[in-house]
Design goal:
Blueprint (H helix, E strand, L loop, with lengths): L1 H11 L3 H26 L11 H22 L2 H13 L4 H23 L5 H11 L2 H15 L6 H27 L10 H20 L33 H28 L9 H25 L5 H19 L5 H10 L6 H10 L7 H29 L7 H35 L5 H15 L1
Helix pairs in contact: 2-5, 2-8, 2-9, 3-6, 3-10, 3-15, 4-7, 4-15, 5-6, 5-7, 5-9, 7-15, 8-11, 8-14, 10-14, 10-15, 10-16, 11-13, 12-13, 12-14, 12-16
Protein backbone atom coordinates (compact mmCIF):
# COMPACT_ATOMS: atom_id res chain seq x y z
CA UNK A 1 0.00 0.00 0.00
CA UNK A 2 2.83 2.36 0.83
CA UNK A 3 4.52 1.72 -2.52
CA UNK A 4 1.20 2.17 -4.32
CA UNK A 5 0.59 5.47 -2.54
CA UNK A 6 4.09 6.68 -3.38
CA UNK A 7 3.63 5.75 -7.03
CA UNK A 8 0.27 7.56 -7.28
CA UNK A 9 1.70 10.57 -5.45
CA UNK A 10 4.66 10.67 -7.82
CA UNK A 11 2.37 10.62 -10.86
CA UNK A 12 0.08 13.33 -9.48
CA UNK A 13 3.04 15.59 -8.73
CA UNK A 14 4.51 15.15 -12.22
CA UNK A 15 3.97 17.22 -15.36
CA UNK A 16 1.86 14.55 -17.09
CA UNK A 17 -1.51 15.26 -15.36
CA UNK A 18 -1.08 18.92 -16.26
CA UNK A 19 -0.69 18.03 -19.94
CA UNK A 20 -3.73 15.72 -19.85
CA UNK A 21 -6.03 18.28 -18.24
CA UNK A 22 -4.90 21.15 -20.46
CA UNK A 23 -5.22 19.12 -23.65
CA UNK A 24 -8.71 17.87 -22.79
CA UNK A 25 -9.87 21.40 -22.00
CA UNK A 26 -8.31 22.79 -25.18
CA UNK A 27 -9.71 19.97 -27.34
CA UNK A 28 -13.29 20.51 -26.23
CA UNK A 29 -12.91 24.28 -26.48
CA UNK A 30 -11.52 24.41 -30.02
CA UNK A 31 -13.91 21.74 -31.34
CA UNK A 32 -16.81 23.81 -29.97
CA UNK A 33 -15.35 27.03 -31.36
CA UNK A 34 -15.07 25.53 -34.85
CA UNK A 35 -18.71 24.45 -34.88
CA UNK A 36 -19.99 27.70 -33.36
CA UNK A 37 -18.18 29.67 -36.04
CA UNK A 38 -19.61 27.39 -38.74
CA UNK A 39 -23.14 27.83 -37.36
CA UNK A 40 -22.77 31.61 -37.34
CA UNK A 41 -21.40 31.62 -40.89
CA UNK A 42 -24.72 30.39 -42.32
CA UNK A 43 -26.14 33.92 -42.20
CA UNK A 44 -22.97 35.59 -43.48
CA UNK A 45 -23.38 37.83 -46.51
CA UNK A 46 -21.18 40.30 -48.37
CA UNK A 47 -23.41 42.69 -50.38
CA UNK A 48 -20.49 44.38 -52.14
CA UNK A 49 -18.94 41.13 -53.31
CA UNK A 50 -20.25 38.75 -55.96
CA UNK A 51 -19.82 35.63 -53.83
CA UNK A 52 -21.89 32.48 -53.70
CA UNK A 53 -23.43 31.32 -50.42
CA UNK A 54 -20.63 28.82 -49.81
CA UNK A 55 -17.92 31.34 -50.68
CA UNK A 56 -19.48 33.84 -48.27
CA UNK A 57 -19.42 31.26 -45.49
CA UNK A 58 -15.80 30.38 -46.24
CA UNK A 59 -14.83 34.07 -46.25
CA UNK A 60 -16.61 34.63 -42.92
CA UNK A 61 -14.91 31.61 -41.31
CA UNK A 62 -11.44 32.38 -42.67
CA UNK A 63 -11.68 36.09 -41.74
CA UNK A 64 -12.70 35.22 -38.18
CA UNK A 65 -9.82 32.77 -37.74
CA UNK A 66 -7.36 35.21 -39.30
CA UNK A 67 -8.15 37.87 -36.68
CA UNK A 68 -8.51 35.39 -33.82
CA UNK A 69 -5.23 33.59 -34.50
CA UNK A 70 -3.38 36.85 -35.07
CA UNK A 71 -4.50 37.92 -31.59
CA UNK A 72 -3.36 34.60 -30.14
CA UNK A 73 0.00 34.97 -31.87
CA UNK A 74 0.74 38.62 -31.07
CA UNK A 75 -0.69 39.15 -27.56
CA UNK A 76 1.57 36.59 -25.80
CA UNK A 77 4.90 37.91 -27.13
CA UNK A 78 5.88 40.22 -24.26
CA UNK A 79 4.16 38.19 -21.50
CA UNK A 80 5.90 35.04 -22.76
CA UNK A 81 9.35 36.63 -22.45
CA UNK A 82 8.53 38.05 -19.02
CA UNK A 83 7.18 34.75 -17.70
CA UNK A 84 10.16 32.86 -19.10
CA UNK A 85 12.58 35.17 -17.26
CA UNK A 86 10.58 34.79 -14.05
CA UNK A 87 10.67 31.02 -14.52
CA UNK A 88 14.42 30.97 -15.05
CA UNK A 89 15.28 33.28 -12.15
CA UNK A 90 12.59 33.09 -9.48
CA UNK A 91 9.57 30.81 -9.88
CA UNK A 92 9.90 27.89 -12.29
CA UNK A 93 6.14 27.23 -12.18
CA UNK A 94 5.18 30.65 -13.56
CA UNK A 95 5.03 29.65 -17.28
CA UNK A 96 2.64 26.76 -16.55
CA UNK A 97 0.47 28.46 -13.93
CA UNK A 98 -0.36 31.83 -15.51
CA UNK A 99 -1.67 30.70 -18.97
CA UNK A 100 -4.59 28.65 -17.52
CA UNK A 101 -5.67 31.84 -15.71
CA UNK A 102 -6.42 33.26 -19.16
CA UNK A 103 -7.67 30.03 -20.70
CA UNK A 104 -10.50 29.61 -18.18
CA UNK A 105 -12.23 32.95 -18.98
CA UNK A 106 -11.78 32.23 -22.69
CA UNK A 107 -13.79 29.01 -22.37
CA UNK A 108 -16.43 30.70 -20.21
CA UNK A 109 -16.87 33.55 -22.69
CA UNK A 110 -17.54 31.09 -25.52
CA UNK A 111 -20.10 29.41 -23.27
CA UNK A 112 -21.84 32.78 -22.85
CA UNK A 113 -21.73 33.28 -26.63
CA UNK A 114 -23.64 30.03 -27.02
CA UNK A 115 -26.11 30.55 -24.17
CA UNK A 116 -26.83 34.28 -24.61
CA UNK A 117 -26.31 34.49 -28.38
CA UNK A 118 -23.63 37.14 -27.91
CA UNK A 119 -21.78 38.43 -31.00
CA UNK A 120 -18.96 36.15 -32.03
CA UNK A 121 -16.58 39.12 -31.98
CA UNK A 122 -16.43 39.01 -28.16
CA UNK A 123 -14.09 36.04 -28.61
CA UNK A 124 -11.48 38.50 -29.82
CA UNK A 125 -11.45 40.04 -26.34
CA UNK A 126 -11.30 36.60 -24.72
CA UNK A 127 -8.41 35.65 -26.98
CA UNK A 128 -6.58 38.84 -26.03
CA UNK A 129 -6.92 38.00 -22.33
CA UNK A 130 -5.60 34.51 -22.95
CA UNK A 131 -2.68 35.94 -24.89
CA UNK A 132 -1.82 38.48 -22.19
CA UNK A 133 -1.58 35.56 -19.75
CA UNK A 134 1.07 33.98 -21.95
CA UNK A 135 -1.02 31.82 -24.24
CA UNK A 136 -0.28 28.28 -25.27
CA UNK A 137 3.27 29.11 -26.37
CA UNK A 138 4.22 30.07 -22.81
CA UNK A 139 2.46 27.04 -21.34
CA UNK A 140 4.09 24.55 -23.71
CA UNK A 141 7.51 26.21 -23.43
CA UNK A 142 7.16 25.89 -19.66
CA UNK A 143 6.27 22.22 -19.99
CA UNK A 144 9.25 21.63 -22.29
CA UNK A 145 11.57 23.51 -19.92
CA UNK A 146 10.44 21.57 -16.85
CA UNK A 147 10.80 18.32 -18.78
CA UNK A 148 14.24 19.25 -20.16
CA UNK A 149 15.61 20.13 -16.73
CA UNK A 150 14.34 16.86 -15.32
CA UNK A 151 16.35 14.61 -17.65
CA UNK A 152 19.86 14.26 -19.01
CA UNK A 153 20.94 15.77 -22.33
CA UNK A 154 21.36 12.30 -23.84
CA UNK A 155 17.73 11.34 -23.15
CA UNK A 156 16.21 14.75 -23.76
CA UNK A 157 14.88 14.32 -27.30
CA UNK A 158 13.21 11.03 -26.38
CA UNK A 159 11.68 12.46 -23.20
CA UNK A 160 10.39 15.55 -25.01
CA UNK A 161 8.82 13.37 -27.67
CA UNK A 162 7.23 11.31 -24.89
CA UNK A 163 5.44 14.46 -23.78
CA UNK A 164 4.34 15.01 -27.38
CA UNK A 165 3.09 11.40 -27.41
CA UNK A 166 1.03 11.96 -24.29
CA UNK A 167 -0.32 15.19 -25.75
CA UNK A 168 -1.29 13.32 -28.91
CA UNK A 169 -2.93 10.37 -27.15
CA UNK A 170 -5.06 12.68 -25.03
CA UNK A 171 -5.90 14.66 -28.16
CA UNK A 172 -7.06 11.50 -29.95
CA UNK A 173 -9.35 10.52 -27.05
CA UNK A 174 -10.64 14.06 -26.58
CA UNK A 175 -11.37 14.65 -30.25
CA UNK A 176 -13.17 11.33 -30.67
CA UNK A 177 -15.49 12.39 -27.85
CA UNK A 178 -15.72 16.11 -28.65
CA UNK A 179 -18.07 15.82 -31.62
CA UNK A 180 -20.58 13.71 -29.69
CA UNK A 181 -20.20 15.89 -26.59
CA UNK A 182 -20.89 19.01 -28.65
CA UNK A 183 -24.29 17.63 -29.71
CA UNK A 184 -25.36 16.82 -26.12
CA UNK A 185 -27.77 19.62 -25.20
CA UNK A 186 -31.43 20.33 -24.72
CA UNK A 187 -33.49 22.36 -27.17
CA UNK A 188 -33.45 25.34 -24.81
CA UNK A 189 -29.64 25.49 -24.76
CA UNK A 190 -27.28 26.12 -27.63
CA UNK A 191 -25.21 23.36 -29.19
CA UNK A 192 -21.89 22.91 -27.43
CA UNK A 193 -23.03 23.85 -23.92
CA UNK A 194 -22.01 20.53 -22.34
CA UNK A 195 -18.68 20.43 -24.17
CA UNK A 196 -17.80 23.95 -23.01
CA UNK A 197 -18.77 23.25 -19.39
CA UNK A 198 -16.52 20.18 -19.39
CA UNK A 199 -13.77 22.24 -21.04
CA UNK A 200 -13.94 24.90 -18.32
CA UNK A 201 -13.87 22.20 -15.64
CA UNK A 202 -10.74 20.58 -17.14
CA UNK A 203 -8.92 23.91 -17.32
CA UNK A 204 -9.89 24.70 -13.73
CA UNK A 205 -8.47 21.35 -12.59
CA UNK A 206 -5.35 22.07 -14.63
CA UNK A 207 -4.89 25.36 -12.78
CA UNK A 208 -5.40 23.70 -9.38
CA UNK A 209 -2.86 21.00 -10.23
CA UNK A 210 -0.27 23.52 -11.43
CA UNK A 211 -0.56 25.59 -8.25
CA UNK A 212 -0.97 22.93 -5.59
CA UNK A 213 0.35 19.57 -6.80
CA UNK A 214 3.00 20.07 -9.45
CA UNK A 215 6.51 19.40 -8.18
CA UNK A 216 9.52 20.41 -10.27
CA UNK A 217 12.70 18.36 -9.96
CA UNK A 218 15.89 19.58 -11.61
CA UNK A 219 18.67 17.05 -12.02
CA UNK A 220 22.31 18.07 -12.21
CA UNK A 221 23.24 18.53 -15.86
CA UNK A 222 26.54 17.55 -17.42
CA UNK A 223 29.20 20.29 -17.55
CA UNK A 224 28.74 22.42 -20.61
CA UNK A 225 32.16 21.56 -21.99
CA UNK A 226 31.31 17.86 -21.93
CA UNK A 227 28.00 18.16 -23.71
CA UNK A 228 27.45 17.37 -27.36
CA UNK A 229 26.20 20.42 -29.17
CA UNK A 230 24.19 18.78 -31.87
CA UNK A 231 24.01 15.04 -31.86
CA UNK A 232 24.35 11.78 -29.99
CA UNK A 233 25.60 10.09 -33.13
CA UNK A 234 29.31 9.15 -32.90
CA UNK A 235 29.88 9.88 -36.59
CA UNK A 236 28.55 13.46 -36.39
CA UNK A 237 29.30 15.24 -33.17
CA UNK A 238 30.38 18.70 -32.17
CA UNK A 239 31.77 19.98 -28.90
CA UNK A 240 31.19 23.47 -27.58
CA UNK A 241 34.00 24.08 -25.10
CA UNK A 242 34.17 27.81 -25.73
CA UNK A 243 30.45 28.59 -25.47
CA UNK A 244 27.36 28.74 -27.64
CA UNK A 245 27.62 28.06 -31.37
CA UNK A 246 25.70 31.09 -32.58
CA UNK A 247 25.72 30.08 -36.25
CA UNK A 248 24.03 26.77 -35.52
CA UNK A 249 21.51 28.47 -33.25
CA UNK A 250 20.59 30.93 -36.01
CA UNK A 251 20.18 28.07 -38.47
CA UNK A 252 18.01 26.16 -36.01
CA UNK A 253 15.87 29.24 -35.42
CA UNK A 254 15.49 29.79 -39.19
CA UNK A 255 14.45 26.18 -39.77
CA UNK A 256 11.97 26.30 -36.87
CA UNK A 257 10.38 29.54 -38.09
CA UNK A 258 10.00 28.30 -41.68
CA UNK A 259 8.69 24.89 -40.67
CA UNK A 260 6.48 26.24 -37.87
CA UNK A 261 4.90 28.74 -40.26
CA UNK A 262 4.38 26.12 -42.95
CA UNK A 263 2.82 23.65 -40.53
CA UNK A 264 0.68 26.10 -38.54
CA UNK A 265 -0.49 27.97 -41.63
CA UNK A 266 -1.61 24.77 -43.35
CA UNK A 267 -3.34 23.35 -40.26
CA UNK A 268 -5.10 26.69 -39.64
CA UNK A 269 -6.61 26.69 -43.12
CA UNK A 270 -7.35 22.96 -42.90
CA UNK A 271 -10.09 23.63 -40.35
CA UNK A 272 -11.82 25.95 -42.84
CA UNK A 273 -11.14 23.69 -45.83
CA UNK A 274 -12.99 20.66 -44.41
CA UNK A 275 -16.15 22.70 -43.80
CA UNK A 276 -16.71 23.40 -47.49
CA UNK A 277 -17.96 21.15 -50.25
CA UNK A 278 -17.20 18.40 -51.14
CA UNK A 279 -16.27 17.48 -47.53
CA UNK A 280 -18.68 19.74 -45.57
CA UNK A 281 -18.04 18.02 -42.24
CA UNK A 282 -20.39 18.08 -39.25
CA UNK A 283 -19.37 18.09 -35.56
CA UNK A 284 -18.79 14.33 -35.36
CA UNK A 285 -16.76 14.18 -38.58
CA UNK A 286 -14.75 17.19 -37.44
CA UNK A 287 -13.94 15.41 -34.19
CA UNK A 288 -12.75 12.33 -36.06
CA UNK A 289 -10.61 14.50 -38.34
CA UNK A 290 -9.04 16.25 -35.35
CA UNK A 291 -8.43 12.85 -33.78
CA UNK A 292 -6.55 11.82 -36.93
CA UNK A 293 -4.42 14.93 -36.51
CA UNK A 294 -3.64 13.95 -32.93
CA UNK A 295 -2.61 10.44 -34.01
CA UNK A 296 0.35 12.12 -35.71
CA UNK A 297 1.79 12.89 -32.26
CA UNK A 298 1.75 9.17 -31.47
CA UNK A 299 3.29 8.01 -34.75
CA UNK A 300 5.94 10.73 -34.48
CA UNK A 301 6.94 9.42 -31.05
CA UNK A 302 7.22 5.89 -32.41
CA UNK A 303 9.31 7.27 -35.26
CA UNK A 304 11.73 8.87 -32.80
CA UNK A 305 12.02 5.64 -30.79
CA UNK A 306 12.78 3.60 -33.92
CA UNK A 307 14.88 6.01 -35.98
CA UNK A 308 17.08 7.45 -33.22
CA UNK A 309 18.77 4.06 -32.91
CA UNK A 310 20.29 4.38 -36.37
CA UNK A 311 20.29 8.09 -37.28
CA UNK A 312 21.23 11.33 -35.53
CA UNK A 313 18.86 14.14 -34.57
CA UNK A 314 19.54 16.14 -37.73
CA UNK A 315 18.33 13.27 -39.91
CA UNK A 316 15.31 12.89 -37.62
CA UNK A 317 14.35 16.49 -38.37
CA UNK A 318 14.68 15.94 -42.12
CA UNK A 319 12.54 12.77 -41.96
CA UNK A 320 9.79 14.72 -40.20
CA UNK A 321 9.93 17.57 -42.71
CA UNK A 322 9.73 15.20 -45.68
CA UNK A 323 6.75 13.48 -44.04
CA UNK A 324 4.86 16.72 -43.55
CA UNK A 325 5.75 18.19 -46.94
CA UNK A 326 4.58 15.13 -48.89
CA UNK A 327 1.35 14.75 -46.92
CA UNK A 328 0.35 18.40 -47.06
CA UNK A 329 1.08 18.52 -50.81
CA UNK A 330 -1.28 15.57 -51.31
CA UNK A 331 -3.87 17.46 -49.23
CA UNK A 332 -4.04 20.03 -52.05
CA UNK A 333 -6.04 17.56 -54.13
CA UNK A 334 -8.31 16.06 -51.46
CA UNK A 335 -11.97 15.76 -52.52
CA UNK A 336 -13.22 12.88 -50.32
CA UNK A 337 -12.86 11.82 -46.66
CA UNK A 338 -10.72 8.78 -47.45
CA UNK A 339 -8.28 11.05 -49.32
CA UNK A 340 -8.08 13.34 -46.29
CA UNK A 341 -7.11 10.44 -44.00
CA UNK A 342 -4.62 9.16 -46.58
CA UNK A 343 -2.97 12.58 -46.74
CA UNK A 344 -2.78 12.78 -42.96
CA UNK A 345 -1.27 9.30 -42.83
CA UNK A 346 1.65 10.62 -44.89
CA UNK A 347 2.14 13.21 -42.11
CA UNK A 348 2.83 10.46 -39.57
CA UNK A 349 6.26 11.90 -38.61
CA UNK A 350 5.37 15.59 -38.97
CA UNK A 351 5.67 16.40 -35.25
CA UNK A 352 9.28 15.19 -34.97
CA UNK A 353 11.09 18.35 -36.17
CA UNK A 354 9.94 20.95 -33.62
CA UNK A 355 10.65 19.04 -30.35
CA UNK A 356 13.94 17.80 -31.82
CA UNK A 357 14.96 21.36 -32.67
CA UNK A 358 14.03 22.37 -29.10
CA UNK A 359 16.18 19.52 -27.81
CA UNK A 360 19.17 20.69 -29.85
CA UNK A 361 18.71 24.28 -28.70
CA UNK A 362 18.41 23.31 -25.05
CA UNK A 363 21.73 21.43 -25.30
CA UNK A 364 23.52 24.59 -26.43
CA UNK A 365 22.72 26.77 -23.43
CA UNK A 366 23.13 26.43 -19.65
CA UNK A 367 20.11 25.47 -17.54
CA UNK A 368 19.70 29.06 -16.35
CA UNK A 369 18.97 30.16 -19.95
CA UNK A 370 16.97 27.14 -21.10
CA UNK A 371 13.55 28.69 -20.48
CA UNK A 372 14.25 31.99 -22.24
CA UNK A 373 15.84 30.18 -25.20
CA UNK A 374 12.87 27.90 -25.81
CA UNK A 375 10.45 30.78 -25.29
CA UNK A 376 12.43 32.94 -27.73
CA UNK A 377 11.97 30.20 -30.31
CA UNK A 378 8.20 30.29 -29.79
CA UNK A 379 8.18 34.09 -29.92
CA UNK A 380 10.14 34.06 -33.18
CA UNK A 381 7.52 31.82 -34.76
CA UNK A 382 4.76 34.09 -33.49
CA UNK A 383 6.37 37.25 -34.83
CA UNK A 384 6.61 35.60 -38.24
CA UNK A 385 2.90 34.75 -37.99
CA UNK A 386 2.11 38.45 -38.40
CA UNK A 387 2.89 37.90 -42.06
CA UNK A 388 1.96 34.30 -42.77
CA UNK A 389 -1.51 34.16 -41.19
CA UNK A 390 -2.97 37.04 -43.27
CA UNK A 391 -1.04 35.79 -46.31
CA UNK A 392 -2.39 32.23 -46.06
CA UNK A 393 -5.92 33.53 -45.42
CA UNK A 394 -6.01 35.94 -48.36
CA UNK A 395 -4.39 33.43 -50.71
CA UNK A 396 -6.99 30.85 -49.69
CA UNK A 397 -9.84 33.30 -50.34
CA UNK A 398 -8.43 34.35 -53.72
CA UNK A 399 -7.89 30.77 -54.90
CA UNK A 400 -11.11 29.36 -53.44
CA UNK A 401 -12.96 29.26 -56.75
CA UNK A 402 -10.26 27.60 -58.88
CA UNK A 403 -7.81 25.79 -56.55
CA UNK A 404 -8.75 25.85 -52.83
CA UNK A 405 -5.84 23.53 -52.00
CA UNK A 406 -3.21 25.96 -53.29
CA UNK A 407 -2.29 27.04 -49.73
CA UNK A 408 -1.26 23.46 -48.98
CA UNK A 409 1.06 23.43 -51.99
CA UNK A 410 2.53 26.70 -50.70
CA UNK A 411 3.03 25.10 -47.29
CA UNK A 412 4.87 22.17 -48.86
CA UNK A 413 7.19 24.64 -50.62
CA UNK A 414 8.00 26.39 -47.33
CA UNK A 415 8.81 23.00 -45.81
CA UNK A 416 11.38 22.39 -48.54
CA UNK A 417 12.96 25.76 -47.72
CA UNK A 418 13.07 24.79 -44.02
CA UNK A 419 15.17 21.76 -44.92
CA UNK A 420 17.99 23.96 -46.23
CA UNK A 421 19.22 25.30 -42.84
CA UNK A 422 19.09 21.80 -41.37
CA UNK A 423 21.14 20.47 -44.28
CA UNK A 424 23.71 23.22 -43.72
CA UNK A 425 23.99 22.21 -40.05
CA UNK A 426 24.56 18.61 -41.14
CA UNK A 427 27.41 19.69 -43.43
CA UNK A 428 28.93 21.85 -40.70
CA UNK A 429 28.74 18.97 -38.22
CA UNK A 430 30.46 16.59 -40.64
CA UNK A 431 33.19 19.16 -41.28
CA UNK A 432 33.78 19.68 -37.56
CA UNK A 433 33.97 15.92 -37.07
CA UNK A 434 36.61 15.77 -39.79
CA UNK A 435 38.59 18.59 -38.15
CA UNK A 436 38.48 16.73 -34.83
CA UNK A 437 39.90 13.63 -36.50
CA UNK A 438 42.73 15.67 -37.98
CA UNK A 439 43.53 17.23 -34.60
CA UNK A 440 43.50 13.82 -32.93
CA UNK A 441 46.14 12.66 -35.41
CA UNK A 442 48.25 15.73 -34.64
CA UNK A 443 47.76 17.09 -38.13
CA UNK A 444 50.72 14.99 -39.36
CA UNK A 445 48.96 13.06 -42.05
CA UNK A 446 45.91 14.86 -43.35
CA UNK A 447 45.67 12.76 -46.50
CA UNK A 448 45.55 9.58 -44.43
CA UNK A 449 42.79 11.06 -42.28
CA UNK A 450 40.77 12.03 -45.36
CA UNK A 451 41.18 8.53 -46.77
CA UNK A 452 39.96 7.05 -43.48
CA UNK A 453 36.93 9.31 -43.54
CA UNK A 454 36.10 8.27 -47.12
CA UNK A 455 36.36 4.61 -46.16
CA UNK A 456 34.11 5.21 -43.14
CA UNK A 457 31.55 7.04 -45.24
CA UNK A 458 31.54 4.20 -47.79
CA UNK A 459 30.95 1.66 -45.04
CA UNK A 460 28.06 3.72 -43.63
CA UNK A 461 26.41 4.00 -47.05
Amino acid sequence: MVLCYQAVSSVLRGIEPLIVLEQLGATFFYASLQMVVKDRSVNASYPNASLSSEESQQKFISDFYMIYYLILQVAPILPAVLLAKIGDRRWRKAPVVVPPLGYLPCSLVLLLVVLLRLPLEVMFGAGTLFGLCGGFCTFWSGVMTVTSLGCTAADRSKVLMRMELLYGLVGVAGNLVSGHLFLLCSSSLGRGTVALIVSALMILLCLIHAVGLLQINEIKQEPEENRQALSDDPHIRMEAPAGINKVNMVLLFAAAVLYGNAMTGAVTMLGTFVMKQPLNWNATQLGYGNAADSVIFCTSFLGVVVFRRCVNEIVLILIGMVSFGSGIFFMSFVTAPYMFYLARSLNMFAVIPMPTIRSLLSQQVPASSCGITLTSLHVSVKVASLAYIPAFTKIYQKTLSWFPGFVFTLSASLTVLAMIPISIISCRSAQNHLNEKILENGGTDINETLQQENVSDTEIV
